[in-house]
């Protein structure tokens, strides 16, 4: 498969959950180390977030990474180097974001990583870690979220944006406001 075909397939990939894979933390660690090696001065902290960061949680097998930087200007300065480092992004999508920049890594027609570059310690950083930590700390809450994810993945299999939007009420009930 050509790289352009692989990217196109990854962009339009369906919502498909898989059981928790104990290799996900190691995959995160490898990518975190790679990113810190590429941007040692710019990345102030790198955290594993999303469902692959919650032991036992079914997930789209995509490693979500939260990278903290000093400012959105620094985040913007990383765009070209990240594109040169096997990530892609949507300039149109990022232009609509005020508090983060989003990047995707893929292989063989599948998304492998999502990278969210945000200002360290600001509200988006805190909300994402608060949600992860709440699910890690409360198995009952994690099971409720897993059940919701399965239901929504079945309902929105071909619409990633609808799947994500449909989880919003649950997420907000956990994180509240910063």
TrEMBL record:
A Pfam match: GrpB
InterPro entries reported in the protein's UniProt record: GrpB/CoaE, NT_sf
Protein name: GrpB family protein
UniProt organism field: Litchfieldella rifensis
Superkingdom as given in the UniProt entry: Bacteria
Biological classification of the source: Bacteria, Pseudomonadati, Pseudomonadota, Gammaproteobacteria, Oceanospirillales
């Amino acid at each position: 498969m050509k790289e352009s075909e692989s990217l196109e397939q990854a962009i339009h990939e369906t919502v498909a959950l898989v059981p928790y894979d104990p290799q996900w933390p190691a995959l995160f660690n490898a990518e975190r180390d790679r990113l810190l090696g590429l941007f040692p001065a710019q990345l102030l902290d790198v955290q594993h977030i999303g469902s692959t960061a919650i032991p036992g949680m079914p997930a789209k097998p995509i490693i979500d990474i939260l990278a903290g930087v000093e400012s959105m200007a620094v985040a913007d300065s990383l765009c070209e180097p990240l594109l040169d480092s096997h990530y892609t992004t949507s300039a149109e999508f990022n232009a609509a974001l005020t508090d983060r920049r989003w990047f995707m890594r893929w292989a063989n027609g599948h998304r492998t990583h999502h990278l969210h570059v945000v200002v360290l310690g600001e509200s988006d950083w805190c909300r994402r870690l608060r949600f992860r930590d709440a699910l890690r700390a409360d198995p009952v809450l994690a099971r409720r979220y897993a059940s919701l994810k399965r239901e929504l993945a079945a309902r929105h299999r071909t619409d990633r944006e609808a799947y994500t939007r449909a989880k919003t009420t649950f997420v907000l009930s956990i994180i509240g406001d910063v």
